[in-house]
Amino acid sequence: MGVSAIRWTAVTAAVLLAATACGRGDEASNGALPAECKGQQTTGITDKSIKLGGIYPLSGPASAYGDIPKGIKAYFDYVNAEQNGIGGRKVEFVVRDDGYQPPKAVEEARRLVEQEQVFALFQTLGTPSTAATWDYTNQRKVPQVFVATGASLWGTDKKHPWTIGWQPNYISEARVYAQFLKTEKPNAKVAVLYQNDDFGKDLLGGFKKAIAGSQVQVVDEESYEVSDPTIDPQMRNLAGSKADVFLNITTPKFGSQALAADAKNTDWNPLHIINNVAASVTVLKPVGFKNVQGVVSATYYKDPNDPQWANDSEMKLYREKMAKYAPGADPNIPYHAFGWASASSFHKAMQAAKCPTREGLRDSVRNLNNVEVPMLLPGITLQTGPDDGFPIESMQMMRFKGERWELFGEVIDTRKVFGPVAE
Q1: d(Cα 361, Cα 373) in Å, to the nearest integer?
Q2: Alpha helices (runs of H) in 190-333, residue ranges in sequence order
Q3: Where is the secretion signal located (predicted)?
C-alpha cells in the first residue's frame, strides 16, 4: 500500500495530554534549510517525508463524506509510488473520525498535532468541526489548509492566518444561484431548508444579500438540526408556502430526505436547487433518478460521470490510478474526484512553498497565482492574495438529466459579478 497508506482509526475516550512545547522540529532532519527559512517550524516534515492529518465524519450523519479521503489517499499513493512524492518527500496521510461532532474534532486535532506530530492538518471536514478547531491550530501555528467547508470565515478572518478553505465559499455559491434565478426566474418565490449552523446560515445569508434589489423573494424558510431524525415536518411547512423555487441547503443525509419528500408531494412542484455539498450522485440515487430530473446545482470540478470528460487526460489518469491504488473504491463517486482535486491542489501549493516549513506552507496557500489544477473545470484556477483568502470563487450551473449532471451556461466568476466577499 506504500508510505502514504491511511491509518483509519476510531475516536476513543482517552484523555489527551496537553503539549508542553510548540514543536519547531529538527531542522537537521529536513536537510539544510535556506537562510530565510531558519528558525521556522519543521515538525512533521523531513527531506524524505511529509506527515499530514485529516479529520472526516467516517461515521455519523455526514458519513457520506468518508469517500473524500479515499480519493486523497489514491492521489498520494500514486505520487509516492510514481513521482517520488512531493519534491522527493513521501506523503503519509493520517485520517481521524470525528463523527461530525465538534468536540470530537477538537480531540482528534490535538491527537494529530501533539501525538502524531503532523506537519499540517490537510482538511477538516465541516463548518462546525473546523470552527471548533481553528483557534487551537492557530494558537499552535499549525497549517490547517484547504479545509473541506465553504464557510466564508476561512477567507475573511484575519486572526486565523493558519487556516484557509479550498472549495467555493458558501456566499459565492449562493451568489451563483441568485444570478441564475435573476436571469431565468426573475420573479421567483423561494422556500428554503437550511442546516441550523454556520454552514446553513452562511449560504442562506449570502443568497439573501445576492437577491437584494431584485424581484426574487424568500417567502419561507425552515431550519433543521444535525441530530434530527427527519426533516419531513419542515418539508410539509415549506410545501404550504406554494413557492415556485425550493433552495435545499443541506448535508447529504438531509439532502436525500428533502429530495425524497419533494418527489412524494405531487401538489408542490418547485424548481429544486440543491447545494453542491449534497449534490453527489450517491445522494440522488437512493431517491430514484426518475424523481430528481431537472434538479439544479452548481459545481467547480469535473464529474467522473460526465461523458464529456471521457477522453480528458486528468480524468483518464484519475481512473487509472484509482483502479490501481484504491481498487475497492468506485471512481464514479464524485467525492473521490473531489479528494483527488484537493490533494492535487496541496501538491501544487507545497511545490510552490519557498520554505519546506509550516510557515512556508501557510504563506504559499495565500499566494496562489492562477494555479491550474487539472481536475477543476476549464477556466477555474486557484487564486489567492493578501486581500483574497478564497482559492476558488467560480462555479458553473448543472442540471440533473437521466442518470447524471449536465453542465449548462458559462462559468460564473463571482468576484467579477459581485465583487469580493465582504468581511
Answers
A1: 17
A2: 198-211, 232-239, 252-264, 281-284, 313-325
A3: 1-23
Q: Of 215-229, 270-284, 408-422, where does mean pLDDT reach its minimum?
A: 408-422
Residues 387 and 401 in one domain: no
15 in the same domain as 127: yes
Return the amino acid letter for 326: A
Residue with cell 423561494: 190
**Is 412 found in the same domain as 384?**
no
**Could you read off the pLDDT of 294-347 as tens digits, one per residue?**
999 999 999 999 999 999 999 999 999 999 999 999 999 999 999 999 999 999
Q: Whose grid coordinates read 449534497? A: 278
Residue 99 backbone phi and psi in degrees, to 5 = 60, 20
Residue 145, amino acid: V
Q: Which domain holds residue 186?
A: 170-299+396-418
End-to-end, the C-alpha distance of the chain in Å comes to: 44
CA distance 375 to 83: 18
The single residue listed with the C-alpha cell 519546506 is: 356
